[in-house]
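Human: We require from you a standard protein entry with sequence in single-letter code and fold as tokens, and nothing else.

Assistant:
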Amino acid sequence: ELKTLLDELDSLKRAAAQRRQPKKEDAPPIDYNLLDAQLRGAAEGELMRFDAEMTVHVLKSGWTTFRLFNEQIGIETVTITPKTAAIPNAPTPDAAPQPVAQLARGEKGVDMIARGPAEFAVKMTFYAPIKVDHLTYSLSLTPPASLMSRVTIEIQGKGVNLLTMSPAGKVTQTDALTT
């Protein structure tokens, strides 16, 4: 009978210890999701000026870093605004820290550093160089890898021919503008 009481006491201690341990939530399968990226550019001499708007979901709790642009670009202005303190279905710690994000220049491009889980609206104005080789002007810019992307470029002048364009791309020409 004493052995039975000791076994029962041990099982109650194990059950109490398991109840005291916090439940670990499932970690998201990815750290972040760049939901959309809208880039509007206009040629200004040998530079292309872009106004960009992006929505970023940081799914991971804590800090994460990811690449926004693979090229070195000249950033004029940046505004990063937390849209919500946490995004739906993201793990939320008991004492959730305030969402924080900023851009940082790396060797191979521009990175975003953010603390989540949170959702951010990113607005920025930046410049990318236009390379000139005789009569051929080229722009090398890879838009951020987002779920939904739209890039609009306006070039003054008529008779602009695009040498490389995605299958989903569309060109509109008027007397003095190519979009």
